[in-house]
From TrEMBL:
PROSITE patterns per the UniProt record, alphabetical: 2FE2S_FER_2
Protein name stated in the entry: Ferredoxin
UniProt feature coiled coil, ranges: none
UniProt GO MF annotations: iron-sulfur cluster binding
Species whose genome carries this gene: Amphritea atlantica
All residue ranges annotated as the 2Fe-2S ferredoxin-type domain in the record: 22-105
Annotated InterPro entries: 2Fe-2S_ferredoxin-like_sf, 2Fe-2S_ferredoxin-type, Benzoxazolinone_Detox_Enz, Beta-grasp_dom_sf
One Pfam family matching this protein: Fer2
Amino acid sequence: MKWVKTTSTVSTSKERVMSGIPRIKVNNYSTFYYQYEYSLLDALEAQDIPAPYNCRGGYCGCCRVRLIDGDVEEVQDALYDTVGDEILACCTKPVSHVEIEIPDE
């Protein structure tokens, strides 16, 4: 039997997206592949992942999630101002593999 030592390297978000369809990891337990829905909120709903929302237009901030890793782009302008690593799920879509955290509110 021959043993092979393997090593892993950490890649950047831009390098990871080159491998294909963006992967979305939610709250450290649920992972799925983005199927090019309009927004991150639509993608979460398509997977039956409960995500809070109200207006779907970026006005109320109810769909705030924490972006832990990865890159997103806006699909519509938001009037609600986010703070720090917050994003609005109704106004963004992933452009790389992303990890998000939905708050327990």
